[in-house]
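Structure ticket #2291
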Amino acid sequence: MAYRNLQFVEIEQLKKQGCTAESWDSVRVRDPFDPERIHHVRFFGNVSLGIFDEEVTIPERGKQPAGVYNSTVRNCTVGDNVLIQNVQNLHQYDIQHHAVLDNIRSMSVTGIASFGNGIEIEVLNEGGGRELPIYDQLSAQIAYMLVHFRYDNALTKKLLSLIGNYCESRKRDRGIAGAYVKITDSGTIRNVDIGEGTEISGVQLLEDGTLTGSHEDPVKIGQAVIAKHFIVQSGSQISDGVLLDKCFVGQGVRLGKQFSAEGSAFFANAEGYHGEAVSLFAGPYTVTHHKSTLLIAGMFSFYNAGSGTNQSNHMYKLGPIHQGILERGAKTGSLSYMLWPCTVGAFSVVTGKHTTNFEAADFPFSYITAEGGKSQLTPAMNLFTVGTRRDSEKWPARDRRKDSRKYDRIHFDLFNPRTIGKVLKGMEILEELSEKSRKEQEYVSCKGLVIKRLLLRSGLKYYRIAVAIYLGELLLKLVESLSPGQTLKDKLTALRHQEPELWLDLAGMLVSRSRLDFCTEKIVSPSTNSVEDVLSCINEAADAYEEDNLLWWSGQIFKQYGVEPKDLSSEQIRQIIENWQANILKLNNMILKDAEKEFDPGSRMGYGLDGNEEIRDKDFAAVRGTYEDNKFVRELLKENADIEIRTDKALKLLKL
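Resolution: structure written out below.
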């Protein structure tokens, strides 16, 4: 852009309009320049001003002419059609076009700043050892590798080196306020990079951070927020007195209502209200909404914290060094308490106070309750509840990320190689416990848990439902994807049989061990030279999910039927599909039975307070509706009908 010095007549007019300058020679402008758009401004150092010939809109104040009014500007570049007014101190910033800065105490960069990039936070272990350096392109998967793969020295060293190089490149002595930024009625903003479209209103303090908003998915920071040493990615909203210190906030996150967090990371679509978080690894869709909830030194994803949820991460010996892992989809009930270390299996529910340590990762879809001072496991009980089904369907629909670039890779399948692999492991353990237990035993013990002996067999039965649904669903998808003239055998021949391997859940991304090893080897290799390259390696692994899922499925088919998928007989194919049909209908009907409890007479207490039973029932129906008209129930009944159609269509296509 071509800037010029001010002309004498322009300087004189600016002086008449209450403007002063440390040196008018250091104030440069672009043509066409209109002095009428500059009033009561103090200029210090080198200042460059763009063209002001439009109006801009301030929230709740309407349109105003672009320009600089009643402000102090030091060493700044001001883009075209920016509005700056009532800013007491604007120092060392490049303000891009159509930005609005109105009524701000101070917005400055002091010395060389990294804008939050490179700050280390102590997630999971307050005593250190799992430090996570945050930066504006961090993803849940990179964070997972850094936090959990500390035993892999080469990988850790390479990641830390690449991140260090990137953070070094972010250091500057000038901040950026991107195009269409709107900052109003705020206190102090110090050493903060502000991305395009960001809206900031009423904050008390923002210090040492980056807001990476984009025009398609801006960041919004609201009233009374205080944040220090932070990164906030696109589409996130923070408001209502939130307190953050040394925190990472990923894409589409919502924090509000006096929530406070320290040394914590929140990834895609997480939500935090009212409560407190310390050293938390909050994977995608971690949700905590209650005042009395403290989440500390834990790792969660697709998680919902009940009111009063609490944990302890030390045992009054070596300090707060213990951690807890709740695998995807876990929930904690009101006033639940766990003494770390503990692990909880996927899609499980924890209620009560647990003062002993337990390991339940191999028992997904379970209830863990506190009974007589012991942690009691009811295996597979959460498989057929309404909550599990509703959660698995709502998460994809609640992805708030609108940015064309999504950092966190998320796989949503309820039944997947990771979870079904755990189900199969759980079945082995239940079988062994059943064989070794005596009939007179009421309980059996396993990894800090007790299980009622009579529930061992029922747990096996319910787990078999999940396995049958998984095996049949993938076979049906293969059938439904056949192109004209293609046979199922053609599809199955392309699948090479291999021994089923371990799968991992990298904070929302499902990946096989071999695929992850290939990914990490590529990261460590000399060809990977930047954090962008690391993201590419992870995206390649994530994109291979469907392919790798089929390979794992083929291994399970071989284990169960003793033949390669391509050698399955017509009778075996029919059996897999019909098993799928029978078991998914059974599961859906059990879920419908669970939903029906929400409408039974016991649920109607408190309705029709001043009437008889007839009034009570009418009041209940007016407020809650009826079982038959409930949207979830109607959709599940429709799905049952579609299952019959889908099965018949597949069998007909295969001529079985």
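Closing remark: The first strand starts at residue 4 and ends at 5.
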